[in-house]
Amino acid sequence: MSLANKHILVTAGPTHEPIDPVRVIANRSSGRQGFAIAAAAAEAGARVTLIAGPVTLETPPGVARIDVETAEQMANAVFAALPVDAAVLVAAVADWRVEPSSTKLKKGDGPPQLHFVPTRDILAELGLSEQRPRLLVGFAAETDKVVEQALAKRQSKRADWIVANDVSGDVMGGHHNRVHLVTDQGVEDWPEARKDEVARHLVTRIAEALG
User: Fold this and answer.
1) Considering 5, 27, 165, 177, which one is annotated as catalytic?
2) Which among 47, 88, 136, 140 would be 20 to 30 A from 81, CA to CA?
3) Nearest to residue 199, comparing CAs of 27, 50, 28, 84?
């Protein structure tokens, strides 16, 4: 299936939310799955915009890459890239941020008092946007009740599809993935595969959906 003449937006990697000039709130996302999806979409003929958090991966051939650090920067880059035919939000965006200190917090001063506030919910915002893509795909990395939580997320975020994977244990950031595709037609359990294989399978499904 071809994605010629289609514009596909992909987010990938973690975000880093500053605590002070040297510390951040982060996670273990490697960005590999999102980069693999961007590569597969480009191979299928799409114009691909990849918005990447802090990772050290090489940009796939034929992909336009935008590097960001924080959830706010990623959200702004996503909406600046619209309109798109499909958005595949793979990035593990931090759920919380703090007001960062302008100077390094010192251990001798005792535990810092951090006030956490929620970051922007990019998937939910896109689900409600007047520029909502024709196909909106979110990812859900869960440690328990993986499918149940993905079903709930698809409804609450107004996404078309949720790709869910179990990240309990030492899994996040690896080279393989085992996912469940949650759509309005039900749940598909895909076998464990390399992330590039998962990406090509998903891109095939996206091409079919976009016709």
Assistant:
1) 27
2) 140
3) 50
- How many whole angstroms separate alpha carbon 8 and alpha carbon 24? 30
Task: Report d(CA 162, CA 124) in Å as an integer.
Answer: 12
* Rounded Cα distance, 173 and 35, in Å: 12
For the chain, strand residue ranges (E) read 7-12, 17-18, 24-25, 47-52, 63-67, 86-89, 96-98, 116-118, 135-142, 161-166, 176-177, 179-183, 186-189, 193-194
pLDDT of 106-137, one tens digit each?
Answer: 999 999 889 999 999 999 999 999 999 999 99
Give the separation between CA 208 and CA 211, rounded to whole angstroms.
5
Dist. CA 81–CA 126, nearest whole Å = 12
Query: Of 2-16, 44-58, 86-100, 163-177, which gets the smallest average pLDDT?
Result: 163-177
5 classed as catalytic: no
CA-wise closest residue to 89 among 146, 36, 138, 124:
138
User: For the chain, what percent of residues have pLDDT higher than 90?
Assistant: 85
Structure tokens at 23: 């510390």
The pLDDT score that the predictor gives to residue 173 is 62
Residue in this structure with the two tokens 């929620």, named with its chain if needed:
118
